[in-house]
Amino acid sequence: MTDLLAALPDVVTNGLKVGGGMIVAVGYAMVINMMATPALWPWFFLGFALAALSEITLIGMGIIGVVMALLFLQVDPEFNKTSGGSSSSDGGDPIDDILNDY
Amino acid sequence: MANEIKLTKTDRFWVFWNSQFLQASWNYERMQNVGWAFALAPALKKLYKTKEDRAAALKRHLEFFNTHPYLVAPILGVEMSLEESRANGAPVTDQTIQGVKVGMMGPLAGVGDPVFWATARPILGAFTASFALSGSWLGPILFFVVWQIIRMGFLWFTQEMGYKQGEAITNDVSGGLLQKITVGASVLGMFIMGVLVPRWMTMNFPAVVSNVKVDKDAQVNFQPVINAANHGHLTVGKIRAVIASVNAGNSVTPTKTTTLGDIFDELTPGLMPLLLTLVCVWLLRKKVSPIVIILGLFVVGILAYWAGILGA
Predict the structure, then answer these.
(1) Residue B95 and residue B72: Cα distance in Å, rounded?
(2) pLDDT band at A88; cut points 50, 70, 90
(3) Which end of chain B is less congested by CB atoms within 10 angstroms, N or C?
(4) Phi, then psi, of A93 in degrees rounded to 5
(5) Report field, pTM of the whole predicted structure over 0.90
(6) Percent share of chain B, pLDDT over 70
(7) Which among B118, B117, B143 is positioned nearest to B131, based on CA atoms?
(8) How far is CA B276 from each of CA B18, B103, B297, rounded to the nearest angstrom?
(9) Confidence band (pLDDT; 50, 70, 90) for B174?
(10) Who has greater pLDDT, B227 or B84?
(11) φ, ψ for residue B227, nearest 5 deg
(12) What interhelical angle do B94-112 and A24-35 show, nearest 10?
């Protein structure tokens, strides 16, 4: 077995090393496919841009991610349906009310 | 509610025990995924009774996973409570389970290294090494025993902590909290996946694109230092002049080499890993088997290395 491995040319062994470094992309892609919805893609690219262009550590990224998830929950209309008034057209937003009265 | 399945302390103990083998079967594609599924297996076996349910649960936990081998414990705890409520009929979706996992694994991986490898272990090592230096056989033994106590204690207690926290979330009867966790975890999970692409994947492009001769004025002039050194009257001032010249951005070499990687980095660092990930996402959606993609990537790796485009 060792002889067999030694007999492989360098191009093959190093090429396999290069390929080995890339196949993690398949693992990432499967996780992404499991989670992704059109509404969630912007978060992926925001995370990418922050990680690629800054030196923020993973812990810092975790804090940013949690903060943004919490902020998103506050503004997500899904969870704010009955927060203001009793009917859907009469929300808590004053500008919305003005537009409705117009 | 009478026939609700609960994970007992014994079940949780076996998950803790198995979690010590997290890094066994580590692989390039999904890293610690097999170890993770193995750790969770005793709990899944207890929660799901039919063969189909068990298979589905294991499959769900064989997705990509990677974190610090100690900080895995709180994630296991939370995931156990999520699976428990799912088995009891709560609307815990695959997205919730996956989102919580990914959202926690990235940041916790960042916590583990500085805390354990860079702080706790050196301190304990220095302490016990002083025993060994004074000739006591207690040094190495103490190091081993105390480290195991720290390690196993941390694994068990943070796993319990995660489990209790998870239960508090899933026991919220109105279900509003769980729904919020689902959305929040998906946001966090996708965000962290975006972060991990450039941080945990590197591709080298050593191919030389251009070799430009640097103008004499833009080069660091080493001549005064060389002359002075050869004649034995080198002064601090001459060395300072060279360092100042380097700091001013002058080139150290007579030619400026630009590689393909430099160009990609100028566009955006991590651009190629991002594109590769997106291509994989697209191929998977086109129902291309992951095995085919992996074999294809090996072929691409060998060809690109042979052509000098990609480097190890």
Answers:
(1) 19
(2) very low
(3) N
(4) -85, 115
(5) no
(6) 98
(7) B143
(8) 34, 22, 10
(9) low
(10) B84
(11) -60, -50
(12) 130
d(CA B252, CA B221): 9
Q: Is the dihedral of CA B198, B202, B205, B206 positive or negative?
A: positive
B100/chain A closest Cα distance in angstroms? 11
Q: Nearest 5°: CA angle at B70, between B137 and B47?
A: 125
d(C-alpha A12, C-alpha B291), whole Å: 19
Distance CA B70, CA B113 (A): 10
Among all residues of chain A, which has the CA nearest to that of B96?
A35
pLDDT(B86) > 80: yes
d(CA A20, CA B36): 21
Option in B98, B203, B277 nearest A28 (CB): B277
Residue A14 forms contact with B (CB below 8 Å): yes
Q: A76 touching B, CB under 8 A?
A: yes
What was the ipTM of the complex prediction?
Answer: 0.76
- Is the pLDDT at A50 greater than 60, yes or no? yes
Helix or strand (DSSP H, E) at A22: helix A10-22
Residue B277 in tokens: 């990930």
Q: How far apart are CA A13 and CA A6, in angstroms?
A: 9
By C-alpha distance, the chain B residue nearest A29 is B281
- Count of CB atoms situated within 10 Å of the CB of A94: 8
CA distance B107 to B263: 30
Give me A96's structure tokens.
């919305």
**Can you tell me the distance from the alpha carbon of B63 to that of B68, in angstroms, rounded to the nearest whole number?**
17
Q: How confident is the model at residue A20 (pLDDT cuts 50, 70, 90)?
A: confident
Identity (one letter) of the amino acid at B307?
Answer: A
Indicate the residue type of A80.
N
- Domain chopping of chain A, boundaries: 1-35, 39-102
**CB A27: neighbour CB atoms within 10 A?**
24
